[in-house]
């Protein structure tokens, strides 16, 4: 029986070249699988046809935009997922979804090998292979760029020798990965971390320095999930898409950072994530209103670890599953509305409203109607301070 290889196919040079190359190396048939996670750009039907023209025996395109929005982006909102407290795990979020569909395609086509276009220097090789190890550990993985030292020059030479229907002349100075949740730009002149980003690298966001009228939006949440904008019910995909457009038009969501890669090196990355930053900012503020103090304090630790696990390719890990259960329990009262002003590159919360709010006006006010019994505070402060007083007295006694 002929061996079959399922290839994660993007339609670009590297994965197009991989089709005939994998067939030669394995003696097998290649099935190209392209996953639409809202990356935009080229028509997916054209990508599907290109794979066939490059020698794939079958080519599939999976429209996973709704699935990505509902099952991957929204959990990231509920977890306030910001790696290193800044990066909303843009690329990392899409990888487990792609892995899921690769494993399903391998099962459907009786494939024994899965292939991807990642290099040995980045995070994505780990994300793909850790995910496959959890979902389909019997599959062998081949990464031509990593396993066969496949450089761009070699890929171009190979494409020309095979007359593959791909344009090898246009070379972007950057490495770009994008999806519904955001856009990542690296390499080129950005590798010198003293160089500032230029406007030409941005696509999801407008220049925040350009004067324009502010945009006010009301985001409605139900159990931590955004369900409406300005009172109009929307699907997760619609919410994220609209906020990408509206927040992006105001320059919201630009990030320029040096991050710690999983493989141990530091990397300079420029990100655009207008919808993600707006939603996480709104969700964090609604949690401030509706989540009890000690739960909120502990959840901040859980949120950080959740983002690290996703970044590190451990979406399908036991710890991630357990953290999901905790986060799910914390969200039962995170219901209400947040009013935000999108302007000048910032998403600023200006109003909060919730039927499950823990904010009590009568306790918080300093004016007439104050329901807080201040006479109770004196004894509370004395008892709260007692351990520190005892320790200070002990230290003075020992030193004496």
Automatic annotation (TrEMBL):
This is Argininosuccinate synthase. It comes from the Bacteria. ATP binds at residues 8-16, 117. Belongs to the argininosuccinate synthase family. Type 1 subfamily. Its EC number is 6.3.4.5. Residues 174-390 form the Arginosuccinate synthase C-terminal domain. Residues 4-165 form the Arginosuccinate synthase-like N-terminal domain. L-aspartate binds at residues 119, 123-124. NCBIfam families: argG, PRK00509.1. Pathway: Amino-acid biosynthesis; L-arginine biosynthesis; L-arginine from L-ornithine and carbamoyl phosphate: step 2/3. Its main location: cytoplasm. Keywords: Amino-acid biosynthesis, Arginine biosynthesis, ATP-binding, Cytoplasm, Ligase, Nucleotide-binding. L-citrulline binds at residues 87, 123, 127, 175, 259, 271. It is found in: Cytoplasm.
